[in-house]
C-alpha cells in the first residue's frame, strides 16, 4: 500500500486500535498514525499520580471479542492508568495491530484534494488515503493557562495530561496543584501523601462522590465474565453506556428520612452508581437540589475545619452539571496538616514567579513543583490541531469559527470522506467511552462498506448538520447541564473558545437508534457523490 492506503486512522487509543482492527477486517488497506511512541491514547499520556478510570473495569473495555472478555483479568473495581495501558498493549498484540501503525508520527496537516486526503506528518512524510478516520480522543489537547511568568519558574511544572514517563519526584517537596476537576481530585490525595506540603489552588469548588475502589475478587470477576451478554445488553439500552439501570424511585415523593437513607445507600455504593440511584437528577432542579445538599452535608461532616469545608462546598452549579468526579479520600485530604487550600476565585493568580505562585493580593506561595490539572480543549481541540482543510480549501478552524458543528458527531459538512470517532455532537464524553467508540467504529465501517460498494464519496449535507446542531442544543436545554457556566462541555474553560454545548445529551441508546436509522435509510443526511463522475 506504500503511503497510500484506503484508510488512514489517526490515533492509537481505544478508538484507533478498534478502528484499524475493524476496517482491516473489511479487506481494506488501513494504516494508523500515532504521535506517541506506543499505543494507549489517553492512557499513554495521562500518567499523573492517581490516574484511574471512573468507569468500572469490567465494562471499561472492548465488547467486540467474546474471547478477549474472557481472557483478560482486571485487578480492581476501577482500573488504574498502568493497567488500562497494559490492556491496550495486550489488545494491540493479540489482534496483531502494531504492524498497521506508524508511531512517533504526528499529523500536522490533512487536505482533501478532490479525490483523496493528503496528509503531512511532523517528520515530513506524506500519506494519502480515500477515507480519513480521526481517533484523536476528546480530552487530549492540554489546556495550560496562560499565566504571566510561567517561563521564569525555577521549579518544574507539568500538565497532568503530559506527565513525564519517569514520574515526578514530589517526596518532601512543596507542590502546588491548580485545578479541582476529575484529574485534580484524583491526584491531590496521592500527591499529598508524599509531598512535603501541598497547596491546592481552587477556582471552583466541586462535587465529588467516593469511588469505593477495591480489589476485584475472583468471584466478582467470574460473575461478570459469566454475565457479559446481559451486561452488554443493558449498556446498549442505557442513556450513558454504563450497565446500570437508573432508579425509578421518585425521590421527591419520599419522606426526608427515606430520601436520606436512599442517598446514604447510594453514597456507600459509590462512584457513578450514586447518580444512577437518583432519578431525574439532571432533569428536575428540585431533585438535583436534594442530591446537591446531601453531598454538601457530606463535605461539612468530612472536613474538620469549617472554613475549609465551606470553601470546598460547591454553590455555583448543580450537581453533575459539570462532569462529576469520583474520588478516594479527596475531602479527607484537607484534614492533613501538610495540605492547604487557596481560593483563587477570591484572590486570583497574578503571576508565576521564580519561587512559586503570586496572587493578586500579593501573597506568595513558595513551590518546587507546579501541577496543572487544568483540563483540556475538549472535543473540538484535538481535531482543530490536525490542520484539516476540506473541499474548497476551507480550514476546519474557519468552518468552526462559530463553534464546532458536525452531523451526528461523525462527519463535518465540507470535509468529504472524513469520519470523526466520538466527535463534537456525539454523546461520547457523557457515556462510557469504549461503548461509544465501538458504536461509532461499527457505524463508520458500515458506511465505508456502502461507499466502496457504490463507488461514492460522502460528507454531511449542511442542512443535516444544521438540524443536528439544533437537536444537540435542544437535548442539552432539556437538562440542567447548560447551567454550569464554566463547564468544558460548553467550551467555557478555554479563553476565546466559542460557547457551544459540545456533547449530545439526548442519551446513548436514542443516539444509536438515530445513527442506525440514518444508515437504514441510505444515508439521507450525507451528500453522496459518484467517484467515477468526480474522476
Ligand atoms: P476539568 O474538569 O476541565 O477541570 C479543570 C480544573 O482546572 C477546574 O477545576 C478548573 O476550574 C481549573 N482551572 C482551569 N483553568 C484554570 C485557571 N486558569 N486558573 C485556575 N483554575 C483553573 O479537567 P480535568 O482534567 O480535571 O478533567 C477532564 C475530564 O477528564 C474529566 O471530566 C473526565 O471526563 C476525564 P473551573 O472549574 O474552570 O473554574
TrEMBL record:
<keyword id="KW-0285">Flavoprotein</keyword>
<keyword id="KW-0503">Monooxygenase</keyword>
<protein>
    <submittedName>
        <fullName>NAD(P)/FAD-dependent oxidoreductase</fullName>
        <ecNumber>1.14.13.-</ecNumber>
    </submittedName>
</protein>
<dbReference type="InterPro" id="IPR023753">
    <property type="entry name" value="FAD/NAD-binding_dom"/>
</dbReference>
<keyword id="KW-0560">Oxidoreductase</keyword>
<keyword id="KW-0274">FAD</keyword>
<dbReference type="InterPro" id="IPR050775">
    <property type="entry name" value="FAD-binding_Monooxygenases"/>
</dbReference>
<feature type="domain" description="FAD/NAD(P)-binding">
    <location>
        <begin position="6"/>
        <end position="208"/>
    </location>
</feature>
<comment type="similarity">
    <text>Belongs to the FAD-binding monooxygenase family.</text>
</comment>
<dbReference type="GO" id="GO:0016491">
    <property type="term" value="F:oxidoreductase activity"/>
</dbReference>
<keyword id="KW-0521">NADP</keyword>
<dbReference type="Pfam" id="PF07992">
    <property type="entry name" value="Pyr_redox_2"/>
</dbReference>
<dbReference type="InterPro" id="IPR036188">
    <property type="entry name" value="FAD/NAD-bd_sf"/>
</dbReference>
Amino acid at each position: 500500500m506504500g503511503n497510500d492506503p484506503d484508510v488512514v486512522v489517526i490515533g492509537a487509543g481505544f478508538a484507533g486500535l478498534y478502528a484499524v482492527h475493524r476496517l482491516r477486517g473489511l479487506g481494506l488497506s488501513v494504516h494508523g498514525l500515532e504521535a506517541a511512541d506506543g499505543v494507549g491514547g489517553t492512557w499513554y499520556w495521562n500518567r499523573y499520580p492517581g490516574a484511574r478510570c471512573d468507569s468500572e473495569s469490567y465494562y471499561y473495555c472492548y465488547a467486540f471479542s467474546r474471547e478477549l472478555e474472557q481472557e483478560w483479568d482486571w485487578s480492581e473495581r476501577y482500573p488504574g492508568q498502568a493497567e488500562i495501558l497494559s490492556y491496550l498493549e495486550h489488545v494491540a498484540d493479540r489482534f496483531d495491530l502494531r504492524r498497521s501503525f506508524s508511531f512517533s508520527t504526528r499529523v500536522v496537516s490533512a487536505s482533501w484534494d478532490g479525490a483523496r486526503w493528503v496528509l503531512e506528518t511532523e517528520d515530513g512524510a506524506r500519506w494519502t488515503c480515500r477515507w480519513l478516520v480521526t481517533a484523536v480522543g476528546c480530552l487530549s489537547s492540554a489546556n495550560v493557562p496562560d499565566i504571566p511568568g510561567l517561563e521564569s519558574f525555577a521549579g518544574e511544572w507539568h500538565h497532568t495530561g503530559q506527565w513525564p514517563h519517569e514520574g515526578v519526584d514530589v517526596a518532601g517537596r512543596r507542590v502546588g496543584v491548580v485545578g479541582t476537576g476529575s484529574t485534580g481530585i484524583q491526584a491531590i490525595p496521592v500527591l499529598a501523601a508524599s509531598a512535603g506540603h501541598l497547596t491546592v489552588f481552587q477556582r471552583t469548588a466541586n462535587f465529588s462522590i467516593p469511588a469505593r475502589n477495591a480489589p476485584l475478587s475472583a468471584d466478582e470477576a467470574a460473575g461478570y465474565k459469566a454475565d457479559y451478554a446481559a451486561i452488554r445488553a443493558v449498556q446498549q439500552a442505557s442513556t450513558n453506556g454504563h450497565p446500570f439501570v437508573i432508579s425509578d424511585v421518585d425521590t421527591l415523593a419520599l419522606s426526608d428520612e427515606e430520601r436520606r437513607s436512599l442517598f446514604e445507600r447510594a453514597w456507600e455504593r459509590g462512584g457513578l452508581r450514586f447518580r444512577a440511584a437518583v432519578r431525574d437528577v439532571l432533569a428536575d432542579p428540585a431533585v438535583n437540589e436534594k442530591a446537591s445538599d446531601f453531598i454538601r452535608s457530606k463535605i461539612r461532616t468530612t472536613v474538620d475545619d469549617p472554613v475549609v469545608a465551606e470553601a470546598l462546598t460547591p454553590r455555583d452549579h448543580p450537581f453533575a452539571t459539570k462532569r462529576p468526579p469520583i474520588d478516594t479520600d479527596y475531602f479527607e485530604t484537607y484534614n492533613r496538616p501538610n495540605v492547604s487550600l487557596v481560593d483563587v476565585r477570591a484572590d486570583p493568580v497574578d503571576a508565576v514567579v521564580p519561587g512559586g505562585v503570586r496572587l493578586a493580593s500579593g501573597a506568595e506561595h513558595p513551590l518546587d513543583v507546579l501541577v496543572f490539572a487544568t483540563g483540556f480543549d475538549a472535543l473540538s481541540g484535538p481535531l482543530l490541531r490536525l490542520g484539516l482543510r476540506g473541499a474548497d480549501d476551507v480550514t476546519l478552524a474557519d468552518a468552526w469559527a462559530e463553534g464546532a458543528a458536525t452531523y451526528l458527531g461523525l462527519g463535518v459538512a465540507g470535509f468529504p470522506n472524513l469520519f470523526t470517532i466520538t466527535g463534537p455532537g456525539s454523546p461520547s464524553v457523557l457515556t462510557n467511552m469504549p461503548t461509544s467508540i465501538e458504536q461509532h467504529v461499527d457505524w463508520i465501517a458500515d458506511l465505508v462498506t456502502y461507499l466502496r460498494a457504490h463507488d461514492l464519496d460522502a460528507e454531511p449535507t449542511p442542512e443535516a448538520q444544521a438540524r443536528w446542531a439544533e437537536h444537540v442544543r435542544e437535548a442539552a436545554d432539556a437538562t440542567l447541564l447548560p447551567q454550569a457556566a464554566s463547564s468544558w462541555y460548553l467550551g467555557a474553560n478555554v479563553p476565546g473558545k466559542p460557547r457551544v454545548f459540545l456533547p449530545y445529551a439526548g442519551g446513548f441508546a436514542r443516539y444509536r437508534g438515530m445513527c442506525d436509522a440514518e444508515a437504514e435509510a441510505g444515508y439521507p443526511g450525507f451528500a453522496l457523490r459518484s467517484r467515477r463522475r468526480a474522476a
